Every structure is written in structure tokens, then in C-alpha cells.
Amino acid sequence: MIDVQNITRRFGSLLAVSGLSFQVPDGTVLALLGQNGAGKTTTVRMLAGLLAPSSGTALVNGYDIHRQTAAVRASVGLVTDVPGLFEDMTPTNYLDFFGNLYGMPPQVRQQKISELLTLFELTEDQHSSMAGFSKGMKQKVALARALLHEPQVLFLDEPTSGLDPVAARHVRDLIRSLKRSQRSIVLCTHDLDEAEKLADNIIIIRQGKIVLRGTPTELRAGATTEVQVHIELADPLPQGITHLDLPNSIHKLEESENGLHIHYLTTDPKAVNPLVQQQLARIGASIVSITTERASLEDVYTSAMQNEIAPVEAIHP
């Protein structure tokens, strides 16, 4: 469980994080989304006990980040966007070093290291210097280090960065498995599809402040009530779309350059689409397909980053 109460962090005159409050219950994944410099990494560093907040507080796995910093660090697993490995070491020696720091008995840590090397398909390279490893291999070692002491809380900053598609899917499956084992997980990512697939809740941060929060479904539903409709035609309209007598509830009516596609926005596609079809049939147009598309998480994120959404506490109180 993570319980964050109004944490703020300043670096001189720069307000990096401004009054963030949120919770991450056991068995859930929270995705933090935002541009570089939005405050995601600073937030994670504070919650992992690596950086003291200027004000506010948080409980991480029941430990106060101010008064019980050492206990916080011991109870979390952290993967940063830059692995930061000791590259002159081998994966086995590196993990053994950290297992010793965590106070794991030799037999226990050797067994866990073997399990993790197998899990991340690193057994063939376990005795090789990490200096020659690819970014993806280094990321696997960093993930293994974060899981070594079986922490209850995980902070994952771009965990699939540098991984090939198969390895990335493997990591996403692992995150789902960790969630099922009742871990609290904070995921920082630029991959909106990944966030939508993995996160129970999403927080979008801009300039250190929360601008939106909610489940993926809530964020999409709260973005707009309009639906985008795409109509594909068998042949171009002889006189284009300007001669169509369409309902006033249609917005942003557009026609593709080749004349084979029509796009528009409407709040009531069930009522509007049949009227559009009637108009097209009246002029002899043949419809190949009609598809509707509601706001995507990318649309929500883009609006938030373009200052179209003011900072708010929550979509739902």
C-alpha cells in the first residue's frame, strides 16, 4: 500500500512536484504519465526514500518516508529509466552483492538469483561482464535486482525500454503476475498502450501537478462526449461533401483527398449515422463501411499536455 499526502519538492526556485496526493492499494498498478520533466521521476525518488520531500508525506508499505527511510528503501524495488549497473561486474556477482546488502542469507539469495536469471533468460550470460550488454539485457538485470528481495512495493520507470517485443511482453506478463500477488506497483511510462493494458488507475502529471486521474475507462469517457465516425465509400462523391444536407449536430466534417473517406464528429451517432446514410444513398453513393471511434487514451493525454485541461484533483471525487 502506498498513501501519498500532498508531497511537494522544490529545487531552489523550481517547483518540480506540487502537492500530489494519491493511493496505490495492494494488488493494483498505478501508471504515472507525463512528459519528461513533469515530475514523475522526482515523485518516484521521494517515495522510494531516495529524495526528501520539501513538504508533505507518504506511507510506503506502512513506513513513513521521513522517519523510516531505511525501512522504506528495504521494502521497495526500484527500476529507473537508466539501469545504472556496475558494468564491470557479472550479473551473478551484481545480484549477489545486492542480495548481501538486503541481508539475504547466502543460500536464499543464491536460489533467488538462479530463479531470476532463468526468468529473464540471462543464464548463458551470468558470468559475462555487463559492460558489453545491450540496453535490453541491462534492463533485465535491473529488473532482476528490483525483484531480488521480493519487495511488496515496486517502482518501475520505463521497465520495457530497450527490450525487444518478446521480452517486453514477458515483462508485462510479469507485472500482471506481481499484481496478482498483491504487490503495489507504480509504473512510469511513455507507452500509452502499455499503461492502458496494465494500469488499474492512471495519473497524468503536467508541470508537477495532477491534471487528470482515473481508470483508463474513466479518462476516455471524461475526455469528450463526441464520437468520431469514419465512412468509406466505393467511389468518390461527384460533387464532394459540400452538397450533402447533413444534421447540425455534425462537427468537423472532412473528406479525404481521394474522396473515398468521410469523417465527422457527433454526440449522437445512433441518430445521426442513419441520416448520413440516407443522404449518401440519395445521391447514389455506395458505402463500404462505417466505423465509430471514441476518445483514446492518446487523445486524453494529448489534450492534457496541450494545456486544454486545467489541473484538477480528480475526475471522480
Short recap of the structure:
The protein is an alpha/beta fold. 34% of the residues lie in helices and 27% in strands.
How far the N terminus sits from the C terminus, by CA atoms, comes to 20 Å
Spatial arrangement of strands, main beta sheet: 6-7-8-3-9-10
Radius of gyration: 25 Å
Number of domains: 2
The DSSP helix count reads 10
Amount of beta strand: 25-35%
What is the name of the CATH architecture of the largest domain? 3-Layer(aba) Sandwich
Write down the CATH class of the largest domain: Alpha Beta
Largest sheet: 6 strands, mixed
Could you tell me the number of beta strands? 14
Mean pLDDT: 88
Approximately how much helix is present in the residues? 25-40%
Shape: elongated
CATH topology of the largest domain: Rossmann fold
The arrangement of helices and strands along the chain is EEEHEEHEHHHEHEHEEHEEEHEH
Unreliable segments (pLDDT under 50, ≥5 consecutive)? 313-317
**Global structural class:** alpha/beta
CATH superfamily of the largest domain: P-loop containing nucleotide triphosphate hydrolases
